Amino acid sequence: MSKRDFRIYWSEKIYKAYASVFSRPQFSGFNRILFHLGLRGLGVLNYQNFNISGEYDFLLRFLKSCHSAIVIDIGANEGKYASTVKILNKAVEVYAFEPHPRIFKKLEESAARLQFHAFNYALHEQTGKSFLFDYLEQPEGSEHSSMNPSAFQEFYHKKSTRYEIITSMLDHFIEEKKIKTLDLVKIDAEGQELAILRGARQALRQNSIKVIQFEFNYLNVFNGEFMKSFHDLLPDFHFFRILSHGLLDLKDYDPLEWEIFAFQNIVAVHRQELANFTQKFK
After folding, report:
1. For the chain, what is the largest distance between any 2 Cα atoms, rounded to a whole number of angstroms?
2. Which pLDDT band, with edges at 50, 70 and 90, does 155 fall under?
3. Which of 26, 69, 197, 235 is deepest in the core (most CB within 10 A)?
4. Could you give the CA distance from residue 155 to residue 240 in angstroms, rounded to a whole number?
5. Distances (CA, A) of 226 to 58, 230, 260
6. 3-class DSSP state for residue 249?
């Protein structure tokens, strides 16, 4: 029996024994605790800060050996991510996008202080105008501002207000700036991540993007989007989930482990860059 078969054999034995004892209503509380602990250990719902989410550790390792690089921060909010990139590596050129008119003012201040570029419009799958929704009681803006009103109506159960915003496409921006390669594209757009990537189809076809970091959470439910949607859009990429310390290789698509509709940061690495990328995280 091979090591793999041996491991599978004993795993099944353990699972069967556990189910025979603990698959009972009186153990539901205990099982839920294990379930939620397991999620945190697998990089899900670790949203409390940059250290717990693993984003600081990820950027530290990713940027350490970058002598020059271009990072795109989409959904930059006040600029915490973009600022962290510049603090860790001043040589990196950062372009940050935030459509919220009031939050953008704070992003502009961070951009001027740390010398990165800030833009007050949304990247999406088409060019034109749209609406951004946010809490009515937070006129200065929040981290939950979204182009999807369903988030406030069906999940937050809060009254919302809306702002008219300009939208463009990442492909257009790349063409305008004559950028040949993007080393890292980070997307945190409250459920609009897939639409933003659709607006970068040309760049994806031309293999111009090396690494993509995007958030996946409950908002994807309202859009009818799955992790498989990203998997199918990015066939030349290998997927990882960011842990507090390191990365979890998601390997081949598996609905049981991939389709978890809760906060998580996913990293998609182009297969041409995979060897160099994984070397940084050993």
Report:
1. 64
2. confident
3. 197
4. 27
5. 24, 7, 9
6. strand
**3-class DSSP state for residue 85?**
helix
What is the pLDDT at residue 88?
96
Return the domain boundaries, the chain.
Answer: 1-41, 49-280
Element (H, E) at 260: none
Query: What are the pLDDT digits (tens) for 40-56?
Result: 999 999 999 999 999 99
Residue 101, both tokens:
């008119």
Tell me the H-state helices in 125-192: 150, 170-177
Residue appearing with tokens 């539901």: 28
Is 92 in a helix, a strand, or coil? strand
CA–CA distance, 103 with 120 (Å, rounded to integer): 9
Backbone angles phi, psi at 15, to 5 degrees: -60, -45
CATH node for 49-280 = 3.40.50.150
Residue closest to 55 by CA, chosen among 223, 262, 247? 247
The set of residues, in sequence order, having a beta carbon less than 8 Å from that of 225 and lying 6+ positions away, is 191, 194
SS (H, E, C) 206-239: CCCEEEEEEEECCHHHHHCCCHHHHHHHCCCEEE
Whether 123 and 169 have beta carbons less than 8 Å apart is answered as yes
